[in-house]
């Protein structure tokens, strides 16, 4: 029925038919809209449940942590990594062939973190441990996935969240909403990195923001093909549903687009350790003008097998990233970064008050500010050594800052962090 029928004075009967037709179409449209509204919800529920089934493998034992987490002890051969099509026939490597400075020898690696006499544990240890031949996996809950923008984005960082100290365009740097205070080295081939960092529980302003402290091992350009391996501690209400400080890892081979994830939330990192759970709470944490607790993290490339291994503390060799996951990092890293990162969402038009590190500036020093000490790199001969030509970078030093130093006990070190919003950082 076209517009000409209306302009030529149609009969009342025809108008009635036309009106009836449009009413019919209108109500059909309402019905289909309400159906369409329901379909995505049911489809989302199905997608979420499928994703949970993929992530949460059948446990041999489950442990309830005091913080509400459930830690599943999953057989080592059933972990999420082996869902990767390239890992179907992978021969599990239970230990690295080489450790920095020589052949790997379990006897030389102590158990636990005894570096400063203040042991760091995970909260779930209070209620049990996982048996041999299993790995502890933090169970993913439905509400964890629903907090993400989509099932596909669950467990992933936002694009462009790596500090780019070489960029000359601050607008390009800040458009991601991520801010950093880091020390870095570049210009060589790096086969690993190590540092000891004190652990805090920074305050987060918005649930969609986070605060973390970590090591980055980077390969490639800062474009779409960037490779990154990351490890450290973080507070992320969006990812975990609380404000606890947690051990984490991350990897990507395409600048956070499609590949990689936090912890074991996708196939990639292969865990071999039954003591430490990725994404589980760290306890205790440092207190301002009080006891300081720190953790050591070492990531290095096994010269024989080519995989990137991670060690936590002075004794826990946690597992490895197979080299095939990467393009540039299949060979070596071209840049190492140590330091802090926060999300600045500026939700109220002002800079976030999310804290980095302790929430205090570097000049306050030990017991008040956050630090990385004994920072080292692994060279082509698989030796740990002091880095040369350390640079520093921060987008807004009035919000978060970094200061380097060097002495006999701490080697190369730096203090970093800050409170975010303050009179000089509006």
Automatic annotation (TrEMBL):
Chain segments carrying region Disordered: 153-173
In terms of Pfam families, this protein maps to:
Neprosin, Neprosin_AP
Neprosin PEP catalytic domain location = 172-426
**Alphabetical list of PANTHER family matching this protein:** OS07G0205500 PROTEIN, PROTEIN, PUTATIVE (DUF239)-RELATED-RELATED
In its UniProt entry, what is this protein called?
Answer: Neprosin PEP catalytic domain-containing protein
Q: What species does this protein belong to? A: Camellia sinensis var. sinensis (China tea)
Q: What is the lineage of its organism?
A: Eukaryota, Viridiplantae, Streptophyta, Embryophyta, Tracheophyta
